[in-house]
Write a structure and sequence with these properties.
Shape: globular
CATH class of the largest domain: Alpha Beta
Number of helices: 10
Order of helices and strands: EHHHEEEEEEHEEHHEHHHEEH
Helix content: 25-40%
Strand order of the largest sheet: 1-5-4-3-2
Structural class: alpha+beta
Largest sheet: 5 strands, antiparallel
Distance between the termini: 28 Å
CATH architecture of the largest domain: 3-Layer(aba) Sandwich
């Protein structure tokens, strides 16, 4: 489903300071096969908008920028496949704005010929770039000798399904899945789960400490060390759009929300990999 808002709604959004907070109120978009024909503007592909040089005085994006939240840059706006509509993207958040600034579209853009979700394609590219910027030295990695797949999992020490996924690590590794963990304590800063994540990071053997923590073993909550990546990874998860854990991101940038049994997960990874060939 696509939701269209007038420029007044964009103004309200700007006051709130975040497009993401406003877009979070919209219902989940349909799958490509079910994309309704009634989603007119956002469901029709066409030639890209051509225009003057970036940032030039006649560039409509200069005026559009004034309608967007503080911190938005002109390069965050680019022509969409629909004439007269610009794509606005920040991190993995993608939305659309008419060139005259009257309407804001929150939803997925589909190519009706191929049934491809063009908006999600933009999100996958963003996720790949954002995760690639994190060195593996700041992750906890559980890997088989010769992995077939690599997934990045945003995890919470106290999350029930995160614990279930971790309890099946041996099977995941046996099936060729390399797991890279990043911390995402769902309760946020200054909470017990957040502190547990920091304690795990400050442990001599982080992988073992994470395993014990997920088993509910007692932890030395007074353990400290230098700066930890917990805050950075939590912020990254929020930028990517993590709302619950475990949140799985594939090498291709696809987002899998929640737990899946190992064999089902591998089947999903294989299918996603095949769809990109």
């Amino acid at each position: 489903m696509v939701r269209v808002f007038s420029v007044a709604a964009i103004g309200l959004l700007t006051l709130c300071g975040s497009l993401a907070a406003f877009a979070a109120q919209s219902p989940t978009a349909p799958s490509p096969a079910a994309a309704p024909a009634a989603s007119t503007a956002a469901a029709v592909s066409g030639p890209a908008v051509s225009g003057p040089a970036v940032g030039g005085p006649a560039d409509p994006r200069v005026a559009l920028l004034k309608l967007l939240p503080a911190g938005a840059k002109i390069e965050d706006l680019k022509p969409s496949p629909i004439p007269g509509i610009y794509e606005f993207s920040q991190d993995a958040d993608v939305s659309y704005l008419t060139a005259d600034g009257k309407y804001f579209l929150d939803g997925n853009l589909y190519d009706m010929r191929t049934r491809e979700n063009l908006t999600e394609e933009q999100r996958t590219h963003a996720r790949v770039a954002m995760i690639a910027a994190v060195p593996e030295s700041e992750m906890l990695i559980f890997s088989p000798p010769n992995p077939k797949y690599t997934i990045t999992v945003f995890t919470d020490v106290d999350c029930q399904y995160c614990r279930k996924l971790h309890s099946e690590m041996a099977e995941l590794n046996r099936l060729g899945v390399r797991v890279r963990y990043m911390f995402f304590p769902r309760t946020g800063p200054n909470t017990e789960s957040w502190r547990k994540a920091e304690v795990v990071w400050c442990s001599a053997n982080r992988n073992d400490a994470l395993t014990r923590a997920k088993l509910g073993a007692p932890m030395d909550m007074n353990k400290t060390c230098g700066p930890t990546p917990v805050a950075r990874e939590y912020a990254l998860g929020e930028s990517i759009g993590v709302r619950g854990t475990p949140a799985i991101v594939t090498e291709g940038g696809d987002y899998i929300a929640g737990y899946m049994p190992p064999k089902e997960l591998v089947a999903q990874l294989k299918e996603l990999e095949g769809s990109k060939r």
